[in-house]
Amino acid sequence: MKKHISSKTLLIGTLLVFFSFACTDLTENVPSEITQLESEEEFISTLGEAYSILSGWGGHGGLLSLHEISTDVAAIPVKGQDWDDAGIWVDTHRHNTRVDHGPTNGVWTFLFSGVNATSRLITQFETLIEEGATDPELAEPFIAEMQVMRAFYYYWLLDTFGNVPIIEDFATVPANPSNNADFQQGRTELFEFIERSVLENIDAISDNPSGSYGRIHKYAAHFLLAKLYLNHEVYLDGENPQYWELAQEQLDEIIDSGEFDLELNYNAIFATENSNSSETIFAIPYDEVFLEGHQIHHMTLHYDQQAQFDFQDQPWNGYTTLAEFYNSFDDDDVRKERFFEGDQFSLDGELLIDNEGGGRPVSFTPEIPSLRMTSSEPLYRTAGVRFGKFEYAIGATPHLNNDFPVFRYSDVILMKAEVLYRQGNAGTGQMYLNMITDRANAPELTINEENLLAERGRELYMELWRRNDLIRFDRYGDAWWEKSESDDFRKVFPIPRDQLDANSNLNQNPGWSGL
To answer: DSSP assignment of 162-199, as one string?
Structure first.
């Protein structure tokens, strides 16, 4: 099992220098000009700007919320006066968002902050080489790392918005860059840009994942390419069998490296001290002091569960899973244990009572009366099973110490099963699928599209892949609880109104004009 704790400590020290979001103004001056870099340590100390932005990954209102609440896995029901938020989360779940949807604008800003930060660093490092202020051989691996990290941010822009401006040369980018007026051509160009950015730099970046914990390395780059190729039919608007082969090549690079392995204990992946997990390929190294932002415990648990964990602050009683998804787990599946269902108790064993909710016990039910519950509905504050995928430490602050595995090895195994199946090799694909169900103590599944999608949901829920998967399997527009069938144009989110108002060169995605 790989040990990453020292690398995490080093990275957190780096992040302290740049613990703030970068502005999305792509012509902004660099706040602190780098004049000379003479060692790897000095280069690493500048990278925090590109990575600290990811502190917003595991919190409320951002990419996680947008990509999970819009699926059949999660919802934020309105509970009386709580969580109405002008209907934005009800609309997200029902696929009724509009161009003035606040969280969508926040995600656009978040992702372009990453593009901004990585692009500035690339330009700074290249300028130092031109000025003779650093050794080109020393700088080139870090330029390559930032090229791939920029491709990471662009991958999520491609997946979320489809057609966005591409920034290749930060030094000459206009103040208001345009996207392609042809949506599909723009999305194709972005696909090719991401692919090129990774392929041209993958051999120059670190191949030591343990020494690059929390940073992009060679195997994280292979993972990113695998995701790109796996979803090619969505991004390029048509199936091309060569991309299944290319995806398999990327996955085999990770599998054959011997650097990663499935955890024997599923819970170890999400433990409070999980930075040594053999399964983590790329993670956000959250820390309650130095890298805040991981707040799933507050986002999902009932207010009174503060007494269950002696939390320093009260949870918010928001996010729930849906009954159909929760009931899809076999009772012996160890992953089903990672939910809060039924009666809840304080640390000293007393049944929790929701005194503000009519004195009812805090007892979660899978069924939820509606997305808009009122105080006249007896279960309105405790309806919906709550998420416990990550370990919630006793005495935790509002920010967890658990690292968030953005890329992990069990996803590699499931992707391998899928690409084999799609290439007509169901027998070997079955073997890889069985690796996941066996570890979960779940029933063996016959490999087919329905079971692949379902098992990916059970394994990877609340890790930002469900929307991506539903779209690839052409199920995102389906009707599910509290959601009618939705139009295909909603497979991407709109370019937010705030961005259109600020930049007249942007072209709205098809179907979204007037909404």
So the answer is: S-----S-GGG--SS----SSHHHHHHHHHHHHHHHHH
Written as six digits, the tokens of 225 are: 């390419």
Q: Which residues contact 415 (CB under 8 A, 6 or more apart)?
A: 226, 227, 230, 247, 251
**Three-state SS at 94:** helix
Q: Which residue from 287, 156, 163, 278 is spatially nearest to 224, judged by alpha carbons?
A: 156
pLDDT tens-digit readout, 439-484: 999 999 999 999 999 999 999 999 999 999 999 999 999 999 999 9
Residue pair 161/109 in contact (Cβ under 8 Å)? The answer is no
Looking at every residue in the chain, the average pLDDT score rounds to 94
**What count of Cα atoms within 13 Å lies in the side-chain half-sphere of residue 10?**
18
Tell me the pTM: 0.95
Share of the chain above pLDDT 70, in %: 94
Measured from the Cβ of residue 350, the count of other Cβ atoms closer than 10 Å reads 10
Torsion angle (degrees, nearest 10) of CA 307, 308, 314, 316: -140
Contact 75, 325 (CB under 8 A): no
Q: Which of 167, 187, 164 is nearest to 107 (CA)?
A: 164
**DSSP letter (8 states) at residue 345:** B
Copy the structure tokens of residue 233. 């039919």
First to last CA, the chain: 51
Q: How far apart are CA 320 and CA 89, in angstroms?
A: 12
- The answer to whether 52 and 288 have CB atoms below 8 angstroms apart is no
C-alpha closest to that of 160 among 106, 119, 205 = 106
310's torsion region: left (phi>0), alpha (psi -120 to 50) or beta? left
CA 242 to chain centre: 27
Residue 506, C-beta contacts closer than 8 angstroms, at least 6 positions apart = 165, 176, 178, 179, 495, 499, 500
| Structure confidence by residue, pLDDT tens digits, 105-147 | 999 999 999 999 999 999 999 999 999 999 999 999 999 999 9
Angle at 214 between CA 10 and CA 261, to 5 degrees: 120
Closest CA to 157 of 93, 125, 114: 114
> Tokens 């169901």 appear where?
426
Alpha helices, DSSP H only, in 445-506?
449-460, 466-472, 497-502
The DSSP output letter for 385 is: P
Q: How far apart are CA 154 and CA 167, in angstroms?
A: 10
**Taking a C-beta distance cutoff of 8 angstroms, is the pair 130, 32 a contact?**
no
- DSSP string for residues in 393-411: -TT--SS----EEEEEHHH
